[in-house]
Specification:
heterotrimer, A alpha+beta, B alpha+beta, C alpha/beta, B: alpha+beta, Cytochrome p450, five-stranded mixed beta sheet, three-stranded antiparallel beta sheet, 16 helices, about 45% helix, about 10% strand, C: alpha/beta, FAD/NAD(P)-binding domain, Enolase-like, domain 1, 3 domains, about 30% strand
Chain lengths: ~80, ~400, ~475
């Protein structure tokens, strides 16, 4: 799975992502964007298309494949 | 005699490489010759103005003799009323919303996405059908027929009628060129005539679609009713004409400019061949580097607007030179370098704000697919002439022909 | 200051501790690494999970389109940190430069960033708050619990508080076809943030979408049944709402209790810091090794009369974290002020609401584009003759223009013509805020420069 966040302050509802990767991004009304923050790996290519097409570059996609190792006992 | 910078932009002699003129233009971010338009050429100023509600796109606000993007005459005799491209809110918003209802989200979210296999087939068929590999005119054989086929299928226009509307579309696209020396009356006449013809042609089609609706956009626009009610027949005609012409005259340049740029940057072409996914950043960089719409010549100031210390008086016409903003070194490092690895390509190639390109997602898919397939299938492609001959148009700029050769065509 | 290569040493082998492993903490950590910090980095978070995004919790998650446990924030770069998650910080020793943890551990630091954020304000009566069916919404766990309950198809959802969060919850419930009552103390939903003129539109939207909206009322008591499950709410107007789910949406509390007694200038209103995110101690003296960012920080904003603003905004957390991280690693002359214009968004009832500036400081509003009736408009807010904020309903593409007006301290009301100006946008009206917070009259500060890269402050003293 790949994590996504959209900076919705930047987003101006151009909907390019919702055109190109409708499995992940949907328009809710004319301007509001809804998205699944956890996209299937099979959609990586479409996600890359959507993120590249965003006219305000508001789509943030996981760039790191690094599990967070939690130190619960670091004494 | 020295030409003004404006004349230099429009001068056909500079069509192959207008970028040095833009560079000179940017030294005066708000450029103004007596009686001429205010020409804005720097990135941040253009971007601001694209979001500035004091600018009108309404053709009816334009000072006479002003330019006329995507081919609509503001004159009284015009056969069709302005399309949403040449309207302000709220009419613009309403018509664009109604059109989008049948094209994209929220109401038709899968339409463009679902066209992928079809686009693939069309591209494959056109490449299969290329003639002598030693002498290919990419424009005639590929980058023109591809988007035309697509827009015809989308709208539900018979492909075999192409010969008829092609001439009208060309005339209308030519009327875009803001040539201050042309006789406006003479040009206006041709434009009005072409619009009238196109309007009558579309009216006939729409009539037919109303009787026998299909799943094409024309049928849907003609029959559907959304929250905004139905379009009037005149609105429908204008909208259909806009989509047909815009789908016709812009993507062809994006694809041709794209292949030209790749052939001039063989390392990138090589990479694309190995990795088709690179088409995505390549197309974004292309929209920056060689945008198919070079400038927006038809905006009017509704109030005095101060830009970089210059007051643009109310009523003035503005030109926003998108292609120059895209090469602004204040915004893009090494702007004259074609670099698909740029981390941050927030280009102006498709405009911004409420009038940003309606067909953008389709244009993107078409160009990505066209370039990756050409890269994959043409063996050792090369340019037969560089620069190629260009079309007259300074606004919708692109090669008239792109003659290339290759060693063969892979399956 | 840090002379003689001390800064280089800090970057190379210093110890930076970030308390708060959410949006601000993560973005700060990424910025620290991006700016060349290769020393040790420790991320401390009270929740057991890695950093996650909260906005989807009140939108996609409640609509059933996203899962509450699947909103991890994308990692923009590797942070190579030691993560202490699920272990809240419990104390700070400023003299010894150590953070105490709930498990008794102490973590030493050379630089500390506090980004502990806020938590939902609970229902004030504990025994009622503990009734089954009473929820707050801030964390992943809370989002997950509420979403599960909505899946069960409750008879009615009561939302207490008609702010942005409460309105979004109500919107999601209506979209799922659940009966909803919203109880708002003010005259209309969103009135505190946007004023009465715009709030009236929000109220219409709610009612049109079938919300049972009750304004000017308070919930006085929640009543449970014999099994400890909420069954009704009593309102100050004497009425009773039968309900099996109550969402308490009464704003947030700042997570600063762990700092009490530390000597840091932290309290219920947040952690006071300078415009460069350095925290003040209780004496009003700025520290040089402790920084704050995100919802927990209060910092003076040059554009808004140097008022201390505390902003619970996603964008603020990102921007402020970047500034704090930069300043931690910079000589004083290279430090940057946090001067992003505040901005936020909300989507509810199919409408996208966006805002820039600080509308709640305003006294007047002018509808400069579109119309309130159409629910598509831009409203410009004015205070003391200046543009101080703007809001848009499905008109977000115009907002950058208004942000520029705010940055330039443009005069209010704006005197120019715009496209789509309606008769009700010809003159300003009282913005109708319930309790305007009035900043003192002061010097004028504008942001200048042509590109975001060369933003500068221009200071014009008051005469």
């Amino acid at each position: 799975m790949v994590s996504i966040a959209v900076d919705l302050n930047r987003c101006q509802g151009y909907a390019q992502c919702a055109f190109l990767a409708p499995e992940i991004f949907t328009m809710h009304g004319d301007e509001a964007l809804l998205y699944n923050p956890d996209a299937d790996d099979a959609l990586r290519e479409k996600l890359a298309q959507a993120a590249a097409a965003c006219p305000v570059q508001a789509i943030l996609v996981d760039a790191v494949d690094e599990p967070t190792e939690v130190v619960s006992d670091a004494r | 005699m020295t030409q003004t910078l404006l004349h230099q932009i429009l001068d056909y002699a500079n069509r192959a490489d207008p970028y040095p003129i833009y560079e000179e233009l940017r030294r005066t971010p708000v450029h103004h010759d007596t009686d001429g338009p205010y020409v804005i050429s720097t990135y941040y100023e253009i971007r601001s103005l694209l979001h500035d509600p004091r600018l009108s796109s309404d053709a009816r606000n334009l000072a006479s003799g002003g330019a006329d993007p995507l081919a609509e005459s503001a004159s009284e005799e015009s056969a069709l009323p302005p399309s949403f491209l040449r309207l302000d809110p709220p009419e613009h918003d309403r018509l664009r919303r109604m059109t989008n209802r049948h094209f994209g989200p929220p109401h038709s979210p899968h339409r463009v996405d679902a066209m992928r296999p079809e686009l693939h087939d069309i591209v494959g068929g056109l490449i299969d059908g290329l003639g002598d590999p030693g002498r290919i005119d990419l424009v005639e054989e590929f980058s023109y027929p591809f988007p035309v086929t697509v827009i015809c299928r989308l709208l539900g226009i018979p492909r075999e009628d192409e010969a008829r509307f092609h001439t009208w579309a060309d005339t209308l696209a030519a009327s875009l060129d803001p040539d201050p020396d042309a006789d406006p009356a003479e040009r206006g006449k041709g434009t009005v005539e072409a619009r009238m013809q196109l309007g009558m042609y579309l009216a006939g089609l729409i009539e037919e679609r109303r009787k026998n609706p299909g799943d094409d956009m024309l049928s849907q626009l003609a029959t559907a009713e959304g929250q905004d009610g139905p379009m009037t027949t005149m609105e429908l005609l204008s909208t259909a004409a806009l989509l047909l012409i815009a789908g016709h005259e812009t993507t062809v340049n994006l694809i041709t400019n794209g292949m030209l740029t790749l052939l001039r940057n063989p390392d990138v072409l090589q990479r694309l061949r190995a990795e088709p996914r690179l088409a995505v950043p390549i197309v974004e960089e292309l929209l920056r580097f060689e945008p198919p719409v070079q400038l927006l010549p038809g905006r009017t100031a509704l109030a005095d607007i101060e830009v970089r210390g210059v007051t643009i008086p109310k009523g003035s016409t503005l030109w926003l030179v998108l292609a120059s903003g895209n090469r602004d070194p204040q915004r893009f490092e090494n702007p004259d370098r074609f670099d698909p690895d740029r981390p941050d390509v927030q280009h102006l190639g498709l405009g911004s704000g409420i009038h940003s390109c309606f067909g953008a997602p389709l244009a993107r898919l078409e160009a990505q697919l066209a370039l990756s397939e050409l890269a994959r299938r043409l063996e050792k492609p090369r340019l037969l002439e560089d620069p190629p001959p260009y079309r007259q148009n300074a606004v919708l700029r692109g090669p008239r022909h792109l003659r290339i050769a290759c060693d063969g065509i892979r399956p | 200051m840090l002379g003689d290569g001390a800064l280089e040493q800090l970057k190379r082998e210093g110890r930076i501790v970030v308390v708060g492993a959410s949006l601000a903490g993560l973005r700060a950590a990424e910025t620290l690494r991006a700016k060349g910090f290769v020393g040790s980095l420790t991320m401390i978070g009270d929740e057991p999970c890695e950093p996650y995004d909260r906005p989807p919790l009140s939108k996609g998650v409640l609509l059933g389109r996203a899962r509450a446990d699947r909103t991890a924030l994308p990692r923009l770069r590797s942070v190579d940190a030691t993560w202490r998650l699920g272990v809240p910080a419990t104390g700070l020793d400023m003299a010894a430069r150590r953070v105490r943890l709930a498990d008794g551990d102490e973590v030493p630091y050379d630089r500390l960033l506090i980004a502990t954020g806020v938590r939902a304000r609970p229902w004030p009566r504990e025994e009622e708050a503990e009734l089954d069916g009473v929820f707050v919404l801030r964390t992943r766990e809370e989002g997950s619990a509420l979403a599960r309950r909505l899946d069960e198809g409750p008879k009615r959802v009561l939302v207490i508080g008609g702010g942005f969060a409460g309105s979004e919850v109500a919107s999601a419930c209506r979209e799922r076809g659940l009966p909803v009552t919203v109880a708002e103390r003010g005259a209309a939903p969103l009135v505190g943030a946007l004023g009465g003129v715009v709030a009236a539109v929000a109220a219409d939207l709610q009612r049109e979408h079938g919300v049972d909206l009750r304004c000017g009322v308070m919930v006085t008591a929640l009543e449970g049944d014999a099994s400890g499950r909420v069954r009704a709410a009593h309102l100050s107007d004497g009425s009773t709402v039968e309900t099996d789910v109550v969402v308490v949406s009464l704003g947030a509390l700042r997570n600063t209790e762990w700092l009490s007694g530390s000597g840091l200038g932290a309290g219920p209103r947040g952690i006071a810091c300078d415009a460069g995110c350095r925290a003040f101690d209780i004496r009003g003296i700025v520290t040089d090794d402790i920084y704050a960012a995100g919802d927990v920080a209060r910092c003076p904003h040059p554009l808004f009369g140097y008022q201390f603003l505390s902003l619970e905004h996603w964008g603020n957390a990102v921007a402020q974290a970047g500034i704090a991280a930069h300043n931690m690693l910079s000589e004083s002359i290279d430090r940057l002020p946090h001067m992003d214009v505040p901005a936020f968004w909300s989507s509810q009832f199919g409408v996208n609401i966006k805002s820039v500036g600080v509308p709640s400081m305003a006294t007047e509003i002018l509808i400069s584009q579109g119309s309130l009736d159409s629910r598509r408009f831009v409203g410009v807010y004015g205070y003391q003759g200046r543009v101080i904020g703007a809001v848009s309903f499905d008109h977000g593409r115009w907002l950058p223009f208004y942000q520029e007006l705010i940055e330039k301290t443009a005069p209010f009301p704006p005197q120019f013509a715009t496209v789509d100006r309606h008769p009700d946008g010809l003159r300003p009206v009282d913005a109708d805020f319930p309790d305007p917070s009035v900043p003192s009259h002061g010097p004028t500060v504008t942001l200048s420069g042509y590109s975001p890269a060369d933003r500068r402050i221009t200071f014009t003293p008051a005469h």
